[in-house]
Amino acid sequence: MDEILDVVSLVLILIGALLCLTAAIGLVRFRDVPSRLHAATKPQVLGMILICLAIALSLRSWPVVAFLVPIVLIQLATAPLSAHMVGRQAYRNGTIDRASLHVDELAGSSETPPAAGG
Fold it and tell me: Which residues cross the membrane (predicted)?
């Protein structure tokens, strides 16, 4: 049984590393901000979750699982939030090609809110 769990954890680490690699390549290769944000959040977070799952399977210890669960939860909470903030700022700076947007929900809110300090 230990050998099977070791092989499963090895496969999970390999898949997670490949997903993180594709995220890094996507950040370098994609041209516009929305595509880069997609590459920075989706495969990177999934790759990190798979690597954490592989670590938990490999070490087979409850303290390790208790340590990895908050890491995964914090990553799941912060990655979409940071991508949203970067995308919104790129929209305000004008670095997003507005003609390529299918729906422009921020068209009426291009000015900075009074409490934003700008």
Answer: 6-28, 40-59, 65-83
